[in-house]
Amino acid sequence: xxxxxxxxxxxxxxxxxxxxxxxxxxxxxxxxxxxxxxxxxxxxxxxxxxxxxxxxxxxxxxxxxxxxxxxxxxxxxxxxxxxxxxxxxxxxxxxxxxxxxxxxxxxxxxxxxxxxxxxxxxxxxxxxxxxxxxxx
Amino acid sequence: xxxxxxxxxxxxxxxxxxxxxxxxxxxxxxxxxxxxxxxxxxxxxxxxxxxxxxxxxxxxxxxxxxxxxxxxxxxxxxxxxxxxxxxxxxxxxxxxxxxxxxxxxxxxxxxxxxxxxxxxxxxxxxxxxxxxxxxxxxxxxxxxxxxxxxxxxxxxxxxxxxxxxxxxxxxxxxxxxxxxxxxxxxxxxxxxxxxxxxxxxxxxxxxxxxxxxxxxxxxxxxxxxxxxxxxxxxxxxxxxxxxxxxxxxxxxxxxxxxxxxxxxxxxxxxxxxxxxxxxxxxxxxxxxxxxxxxxxxxxxxxxxxxxxxxxxxxxxxxxxxxxxxxxxxxxxxxxxxxxxxxxxxxxxxxxxxxxxxxxxxxxxxxxxxxxxxxxxxxxxxxxxxxxxxxxx
Lengths: 136, 392
Known about the structure:
Chain A has helices at residues 14-26, 37-43, 62-72, 87-94, 108-116, and strands at 7-10, 31-34, 50-54, 78-82, 100-103. By secondary structure, chain A is an alpha/beta fold. In chain A, helix 4 links the parallel strand 4 (78-82) and strand 5 (100-103).
């Protein structure tokens, strides 16, 4: 069952942000969109929830954002979405603790399954163990 | 006659001959009148005048022939090849020239003079067609060879341009695929969201989703259309075009790459006259220049990568410039910048700018580069404006 209280959606593509936001809402996950990693860092208040981030973005990439969050000690469960993953990105990803990787296009079932991995208990909200790619 | 001359763009020599010819008849008539009118003129003098007439007569015949020969030679250069039709025409032109001369001279002089002159001219009458035939055959063959070489060069250049364009498209492929993925992902998410909606919201939600899906599939179609146009292979075709529209198409094609490179793009596009261009080739020039500008700014700090594209009318030309805020052009390589295989990049053949130059020059324009005030370089090209026509 999905227990995520809120999703923070970071994607530079407005149409993807909008449509994925509507899909999340339809499956019962309230969400907020951010047009860039910088905008998220500036606007994130530390509220519980889950980060859904695209890798490829102008300026600060999704990977840069995750590394920055790790550096700042913010342990927000993160789902990484991507259109295409190259080897270097995979290497960088494997050093990060993320819930999983979703390759676009992914099904609603895959998204639900990924969200369901995130525990409801805020106390257990810490780093979620990486357990393989989904949709890869 | 004038029409024939005009058609063949006869050189001044042919015109001079014609004028000389026309002027000669009154002069001869005047000489003849003087000879018969003066009974005191000594016989040797008359003989001299007669033989001079004979010489003038022969010369006249040639003057009548020469323009025909010139025309024939020029025709053969233009039309290439000499068949029976060409020989018949040349012969007819020369025969007509001879006949005209004979009719006029028989009226002016004694019959025996004319006949002897005709006999004396016979070898020349034979020599002329042979000379003409030989010259035109040689020039025809040269012209054929030259035309063939030009055709081959043009075909090779078109092939090279096409290969370079497909190569560029290949470099752009990753970006374009990503660009295409966005509307596809959006369509997928919209449809998925509509399917997940609870019963009571589904009617309105479904309508919204379908509207978004329709919009996004058009967007995907646009991306594919632009790619296909750019990869087109075929005969270049020039059309009256609006450079502003071509610039916007190219910016759409490159929007993703530009965004990923953190390039901030602005345009100042004036209302400019139409230009007669092959649209794909001009797009290729623009793509090359914009990507060149983009690559020049990779070492520029983020936030300072400004691309400015301008179009304005300048002195019966349309001038388009692409300005970057990169390192600028190294003066050491400025002179050879447009030469082929001059690349400073690790990847790339160094053909981009040289292809831009050959395409712009093939359109009767010119291309160049200047330093940008402050920082960076400006690459510009000018194309002849089609006067009085504002693009629709």
